[in-house]
């Protein structure tokens, strides 16, 4: 078999199959391989008219089908299955070849794999792909890491198959060395968790407090989607809420169990944020909200606990409350993105990735799950001020969140009064207030730590670390 394929995809489940079809539709000759050969044959039989595919039934045939430098995309489950595929194919490759992992790998695994293959002269590229099955086929947002040499070989192909923003810019760019791409994809998913939680809380408030039906809330979300909240998640939320279950005639949301599952990337985001010392409280609350929803026995045991009963508002009051919820949702979303970009900056500094935050916002404008109109403004904010520490330091976002804060506080207060949980909204507001506070109670925390553990503290009026002799005359001594 001659090396004629410009790229190869191994692992032909839905995502891998659709990605292979995307490459073929865009004029590339694609080698395809799967451990189960029937999937390879089925892809060529079902979609062979979409482009040029080269089926391979063995690893040796697959590698032989690829032109040099070989570009081999792995689309299998993260973890051990990915390691197994790399172990199988690496001995068949040569110096300068490129192995691409398109799965949702943990970025530390990607760092390890990149180092191991680099020592063999093989480029390893961890690629975050967002957009689901439809995106893989029609144009996802693509977040590749790896060496600059690997992007020179792979980048033009990714730019061809990626989603395009409204200005025509491909939604992909070289994120940075080794695992930068998978790290950014992880944070993308963390923001996605927070975004979905905030939208769910808005729905809950409109239903329990405003007294709206799912159909009315769907109309509300459609209206919001024509303004500053314009986004993919708002759009599909309206579709879900408008859907009627065919079997029962009930609103779809009323026949679905209220237990949200998760695949782990949101949890990873929170775990890594703790390691980096970055507060991503909104993402954390979204992860915990899903966890709480899954504890059905715990919730059943607590269902009889005392609390206020929600009392729906009158028609005019409900309409006014809905407008306030829109303000609270928008302000909370700004905070979620602020926390996510802070984490990317911290990761970039820790691992020396030199990630361009404006470029990240740019490639999230289309194709990915969190695509939203205001990402173009986030891109502009970072492009104009690459050293911007926080989106809340951008004047336009600061003005908007300032204008929203009274309604934001009113919504949370009403939620508390009526017993409607809003952990995402409340965490976002607490983060905002924590940043703007002149002083935080952390001074007391430091005093407590010094009292029970001699952990020392710093003073506001002089340099150095100090410890108070709490058990004696309470005199202060310099630490160390």
Word description of this protein:
- The protein is an alpha/beta fold and 480 residues long.
- The chain contains 20 helices and ten strands.
- The chain has helices spanning 14-25, 37-47, 59-64, 80-89, 107-118, 132-138, 148-161, 180-208, 214-224, 232-242, 252-255, 265-276, 281-294, 296-302, 315-351, 357-363, 375-384, 395-418, 423-436, 442-453; strands at 7-10, 30-33, 53-55, 71-74, 98-101, 123-130, 141-144, 457-458, 465-468, 476-478.
- The protein has a seven-stranded mixed β-sheet, with helices on both faces.
- It is globular.
- The protein starts with 6 loop residues before the first strand and ends with a strand.
Order of helices and strands: EHEHEHEHEHEHEHHHHHHHHHHHHHHEEE
Low-confidence stretches: none
The main β sheet shows up as: 7 strands, mixed
Percentage beta strand: 5-15%
Strand order of the largest sheet: 3-2-1-4-5-6-7
Total DSSP helices: 20
Q: Rounded to an integer, what's the Rg over CA atoms?
A: 25 Å
Overall pLDDT: 96
How would you describe the oligomerization state of the chains in this entry?
single chain
End-to-end CA span: 70 Å
Number of strands: 10
Shape: globular
Kindly state the percentage of residues in helix.
Answer: 55-70%
Which structural class should the secondary elements be placed in? alpha/beta
């Amino acid at each position: 078999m001659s090396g004629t394929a410009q790229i190869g995809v191994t692992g032909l489940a839905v995502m891998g199959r659709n990605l292979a079809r995307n490459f073929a539709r865009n004029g590339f000759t694609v080698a395809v391989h799967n451990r189960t050969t029937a999937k390879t044959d089925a892809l060529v039989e079902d979609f062979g008219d979409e482009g040029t595919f080269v089926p391979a039934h063995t690893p040796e045939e697959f590698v032989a089908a690829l032109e040099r430098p070989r570009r081999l995309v792995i689309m299998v489950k993260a973890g051990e299955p990915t390691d197994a595929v790399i172990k199988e194919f690496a001995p068949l490759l040569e110096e300068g070849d490129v192995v691409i992992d398109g799965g949702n790998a943990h970025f530390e695994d990607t760092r390890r794999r990149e180092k191991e293959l680099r020592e063999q002269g093989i480029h390893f590229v961890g690629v975050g792909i967002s957009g689901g099955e439809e995106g893989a086929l029609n144009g996802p947002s693509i977040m590749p890491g790896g060496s600059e040499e690997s992007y020179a070989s792979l980048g033009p192909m990714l730019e061809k198959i990626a989603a395009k923003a409204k200005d025509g810019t491909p939604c992909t760019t070289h994120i940075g060395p080794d695992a930068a791409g998978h790290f950014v994809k992880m944070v993308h998913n963390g923001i996605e968790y927070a975004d979905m939680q905030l939208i769910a809380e808005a729905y809950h408030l409109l239903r329990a407090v405003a007294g709206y039906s799912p159909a009315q809330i769907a109309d509300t979300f459609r209206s919001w989607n024509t303004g500053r909240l314009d986004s993919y998640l708002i759009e599909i939320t309206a579709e879900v809420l408008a859907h009627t279950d065919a079997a029962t005639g009930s609103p779809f949301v009323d026949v679905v169990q209220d237990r949200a599952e998760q695949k782990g990337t949101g949890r990873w985001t929170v775990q890594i944020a703790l390691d980096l010392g970055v507060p991503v409280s909104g993402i954390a609350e979204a992860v915990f909200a899903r966890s709480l929803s899954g504890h059905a026995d715990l919730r059943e045991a607590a269902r009889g606990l005392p609390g206020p009963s929600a009392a729906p508002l009158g028609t005019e009051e409900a309409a006014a409350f809905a407008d306030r919820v829109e303000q609270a949702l928008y302000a909370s979303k700004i905070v979620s993105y602020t926390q996510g970009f802070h984490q990317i900056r911290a990761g970039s500094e820790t691992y020396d990735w030199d990630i361009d935050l404006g470029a990240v916002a740019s490639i999230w404008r289309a194709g990915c799950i969190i695509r939203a109109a205001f990402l173009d403004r986030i891109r502009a904010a970072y492009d104009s001020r690459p050293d911007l520490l926080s989106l809340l330091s951008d004047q336009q976002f600061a003005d908007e969140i300032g204008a929203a804060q009274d309604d934001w506080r009113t919504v949370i207060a009403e939620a508390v009064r009526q017993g409607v949980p809003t952990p995402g909204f409340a965490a976002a507001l607490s983060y905002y207030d924590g940043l703007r506070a002149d002083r935080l109670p952390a001074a007391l925390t430091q005093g407590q730590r010094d009292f029970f553990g001699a952990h020392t503290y710093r003073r506001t009026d002089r340099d150095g670390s100090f410890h108070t002799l709490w058990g004696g005359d309470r005199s202060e001594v310099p630490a160390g």
